[in-house]
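Honest question from a wet-lab person: if I give you the sequences of every part of a complex, can you actually get the arrangement of the whole thing, not just the pieces? Trying it with mine:
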Amino acid sequence: MPTSIIGKRIPKLDAPDKATGRTTYGHDVRLPGMLHGRILYTRHPHARILNIDTSKAEKLPGVRAVLTAADNPQTKFGYGKDNTAFKGDKIRCLADAVAAVAAIDPDIAAEALSLIEVEYEPLPAIFTIADALAEGAPLIHTERRSNRFHTYRYSHGDPDAGEAESDVIVEASYKLPYVSHACMETSVIVAQFDHRGHLTLWSTTQIPFLLQRDLSEALDIPGSQIRIIQTAIGGAFGRGLDIYPYEPIAALMARKTGKPVRLSFSRHEEFMAAPVRQPAEVLVRAGAKGDGRLTFRDVAADLDVGAYISWGAVTPLVMMETAASLYRVPHVRFSADCVYTNNPTTGAVRGYGNPQSTFFIETIMDQLAEALDMDQVDFRLRNANIPNSETPQGLIITSCGLKECLEAVAAAADRGAESEEWGAEITNYQLPITDYQLPITKPHLKRGIGFASTLNVGGGARIYRSDGCGATVKVDDFGHVTVVTGSTEIGQGSETILAQIVAETLGTHLHDITVINSDTDVKPWDVGVHASRTTFIAGNAAYLAAVDARGQIFETAAAMFGVSADNLIAGGGKIKVKDDENRVMSLSKAVRKRHFREDGQVVIGEGWYDPPTKLVDKDTYKGNISAAYGFGSQMAEVEVDTETGHVRVLRLACANDVGRAINPMAVEGQIEGGAQMGLGYALTEEVLVKDGRVLNPDFLDYRLFTSADMPAIETIIVETDDPGGPFGAKGVGEMGGTPTAAAIANAIYDAIGVRLTQLPMTPERVLAALDKKRGKEQTLAKFDSTLTC
Amino acid sequence: MKPFDHYSPKTLPEALDLLAQMNGRARVNAGGTDLMLKMKAGFLQPEAIINIKRLPELKGVTYDETAGLTMGALTTLRDLTRTAVIRDHYPVLAQAAGLMASEQIRSFATVGGNLCNASPSADLAPPLMVLGGTAVIAHQNGVRELSLDDFFLGPGQSALKPGELLKEIHLPPPTGQTVYLKQSPRAYMDIAVVGVAVRLHQVNGRCREARVVLGAVAPIPLRAREAEAVLEENLVDNGRIAQAAQIAADACTPIDDVRGSAWYRQRMVQVLTRRGLTALAAP
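Yes, you can. This is the full assembly:
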């Protein structure tokens, strides 16, 4: 047999075309006669619309249509069934669309927007959870009786008894920020109707099949008449997990004009109108016995979900999972309230509630270890999840490498940094570039290390009645293999992983495989790309389809060799008879034999995989949501400037239990990319919102970690060979950034003895916390946060 | 973006004639790294763009031991980081430019653009000011010279009058040592929350001349003259340094904005001034 390509470091198959500009993204789509759409947003976060006058805009040469709520469906759509394409009577946030223009070029469309006259009656607006829940508060959605959209109440064990038996109890309150996906590609869509009235959309969605259904409701046309073609997607990170008003708006403009219409967001618009991660305020209490065993956790979270409900509003499900099941805790109470405000609409962002909850759970773990005077790693090991166990929440943990992950990052901490003078190589001027390199003594620099772990679904996540994915594998007479998968490539490398799985199963070469995953008219159903599920779920489906195709080919080959199919093996693009080196034929020869004969047959294998899991109980929130769980630990070493508050991450060690790394290079890419988002969440990223308005809608003042800011990252892959995963693999897509903020916060505490409980941990906040410790209160700027409850 | 006329004059007189004709209705484009963003965002809608990239009179760097340095307004940030006479005699300019933007942007952005944009946080203003820089300003009837200390009038407002063009910057021969310290959330690709440039010229252990200029903490890049005064003609020891740093912090008038709170900026002025002076005073 040739060497397996499972476990090989293979560069992403789509990378060269992306790196050389050959890839067609949504922004590259151009159709004959295509018009350009622009949306007019409201000027008030909460208002009644009294009148809209579009007459001047309609007369502008080059304008083909001006649309408002007046002539369009007001069907409610979205997860909360509370959103519409255009707002006709009431405005609830600054992302609300009042009108849209389709014109022959984008500048004319923009000019037309300025000619639309809208008369508003501003209403008292709500920007805080406390105001939203206050008695007599104005209702954001008048048809609902409360601004509280949903309340989650979970418990297991007896939290009060757990508290009573605790030897140490710690408590802290947390404040978590809005953050953006910050996709390189802004939101974009092109819509076109054909002569039958069938709609085709070129889209960057992550949920093509659910979007078909959602759009069918929003546009009042059958889902069977909606085709979604996914262009190459320049970053998604959860942004495409829902329907948003710009999607039906593009379709409505295309219907009205009879022309294809393209709608693309500017970066400013992206920050203003695309969803953001929910900000939250959280109170956490937790306890442990003197011997280090956890006793209880009690978490109460308030989430500001904004004016409309997307899938992102169900993030408490994931927050709850970490609170209840990361480490073994006998007694847990969790509650979360999702509250409407006139602030920006929130949605799903990579990690989906987990970075939030891992931040507070793992910093509380640190406090408990300190209260117990136990080593941070020993304390975590004492309570670590173990393989083949069921958590009180009902999670069935199969493979589990949490212990190995913790030990690996602890060993990394002990090894010390490879290069103490990180950054030294950056200067080629032979003079100090930053004040770190000044020739002065630096008693103000303090170093510390911190740890944090994560638990994440790694075998799908059943949040819809099906968590399934379909696949077909076609083998043609050249031996070329086409994998058609329901899943979606969003840059995570799924095409490469699926190609490896199929190549391994069929015993053929990677370069003989093409993965098709972009057209709802072609590909079988899939719930969408989320929950780190693609390798596990789509991988299993592709594996089953490949096994089916191999069986068909073997049937023919067996007849040709005159042996039983059981005696055949495939490898290197060839089929061989076991233990007989001379009896070999190419895969393509067997396929030709099967095709080109009377009563011939095509070689198409099919696979459908839906994991053995269930929806959580709607009242208790218990149940096994995923077929496998991934684990990871991180160690951060930081240097804190106690005079400026600046935190420099010197290095980050990331160990992840991925079951089995089908492609270690791709796993490292996911972990490093996740860490980049985790570092931003920890230290620099925050969408600043005041009175419902985003104050920093650009990449100058919304600060991502750039390549120059990244610390040295050591990735450690822990393999536990999951029994349910394809070749033992589990998902890793979201874990990379989840524990980062907690590890850094714990390292900051180790360095300077100050616990930061608000993200991001900006220089100003670190310095203010240090001042507080020194007995001097600072008033943070009024821009510091919008959340006060 | 609104339509606009585009001119590409080949000589300085031609450009000055155009500027005079347009009488304030045209914008000058050098590197374009600020102008294009402002136009795309709709903040600026000029009737015309005058591209000055081809003007030979605005190019080149010359250095003479007695005359000092003269650099054309079109000198790019990348030129500052790479030009030998700058790195040898005015290394702080290479250092400050190296902290700005990215290699790609540094290849476009110009010294003249950074100054004429008149942002309070312009990274080149404090180092050029502590080096004693003079702006050479051209107009239809000739040139006038203006100390950079007087070049900035307010946010986005320079001393250039309609019809005038910044031709070059002149620096006297260097004396003493200079450093520029910048505080921003990111080490690179970021705007200064606070920038402090310090020059210290010591003779026989005493300060002959001191310059302290603060960026991003006042409507203009601010020269902290009182801080300079307590250093000059004195022994620069830790006590004196702390006093000067405090005076500098008291002199600035920062605002709260999305990039930082006033208290934080004021504190950073004190910290960075102290660090800069400590580094330069070291024997």
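Two things worth pointing out. Chain B has a mean pLDDT of 95. Chain B touches chain A at residues 1-2, 41, 81, 87, 91, 94-95, 98-99, 179, 181-183, 185-191, 256-264, 267-268, 271-272, 275-276, 278-279, 282 (CB under 8 Å).
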